[in-house]
Amino acid sequence: MGWLTSIIIGAIVGWLAGKIMNSEGGLLKNILLGWVGSIVGNFVANLLSISSNSLAGNIVLQLAGACLVLFIFRLFTKKS
Asked: Is the pTM of this model over 0.85?
């Protein structure tokens, strides 16, 4: 995938992950975490030797990574 496609898909995935994880943050935060999550999702997939040659498969991997990043972000920013 090209960089521009990854950025656009990362933004969409970040928005979707925010909806799935019921994130209280704003759209910009969700998009940024989605971009980071896309990188994390692809990295974890490579570690587990999971590969996807389709756009849909890449979106699923990036969405899983974005949800993971949102979950970890909440652990560190949770108010007591």
From this structure: no
Q: What is the pLDDT along the chain (80 residues), one digit of tens a residue?
A: 567 777 777 788 888 888 888 877 777 877 787 788 878 888 888 888 887 778 788 788 888 888 888 888 888 887 65
Residue in the block written with tokens 């974005």: 66
What is the extent of the structural domain holding 62?
A: 3-77
Count the domains in the chain.
1
51 φ/ψ angles, rounded to the nearest 5 degrees: -130, 150
Rounded CA-CA distance 48/42 in Å is: 10
Residue type at 63?
L
- Dihedral sign computed on CA atoms, order 48, 54, 59, 62: positive
